[in-house]
Amino acid sequence: MPRKQPTTALTEAAPTKVRVFRKLIHTIGLLQRVMQPYFAQFGVSGAQWGVLRNLYRAEKNGEPGLRLTDLGRRMLIRPPSVTGIVDRLERMRWIVRQASDSDARAKRVALTVEGRQLVERVLAVHGGQMERVMGGISSREQAELERLLDRLGSHLEIMVETRDFEPAARRENGAN
Question: CA–CA separation, 86 vs 90, rounded Å?
Fold first, then answer.
């Protein structure tokens, strides 16, 4: 039976948006705690799995590899973080860097045979893990959660595109 997060008078008095935001952050933390040991049994971190899974999807869609910038965009992480993850995966021999056909300066990363086999091993049991993780809410509730997350995600994408998350003075001055 799931434990409830302790509530305090301060939490209960907080506006709904603050409570929901805190619960979302708390839930993301719990999700990471559940998934970390799951991925560790395959010898990867969650971030490494994200790179491997994106490369596998790209491959299935006929893309022979992805540029680091494309990986970063898909995973919503900055280039230095992508580079660090790719470096580790390359040392493990699960991915390889290749020269880009269209841009001599750019490198593409692609799965090796071993990397592809690892992804397929994880995917063979991944459905069961997703069932366990999402088992706390019904199919109908999952559909509603998906709808709400899509709405929130669209709103946040607009904020990113318009830089609406930055303080007003910073936006007006065009600072980075």
Answer: 6
pLDDT confidence of residue 19: 94
Q: Which DSSP string corresponds to 77-113?
A: --HHHHHHHHHHHHHTTSEEEEE-SS-TT-EEEEE-H
Please tell me whether residues 109 and 60 are part of one structural domain.
yes
pLDDT at 45: 96
Two structure tokens written together for 57: 């999807």
Beta-bridge partners for 97? 109
Whether residue 105 sits in one domain with residue 48: yes
> 26-57, pLDDT tens digit by residue?
999 999 999 999 999 999 999 999 999 999 99
Residues 76 and 114 in one domain: yes
Please name which of 71, 73, 44 lies closest in space to residue 55, comparing C-alpha atoms.
Answer: 71
DSSP for 122-161, please give it: HHHHHHHHHHHHHTTS-HHHHHHHHHHHHHHHHHHHHHHH
Which portions of the chain are predicted below pLDDT 50? none
Q: For residue 9, is it within any domain?
A: no
Q: Note whether residue 108 is domain-resident.
A: yes
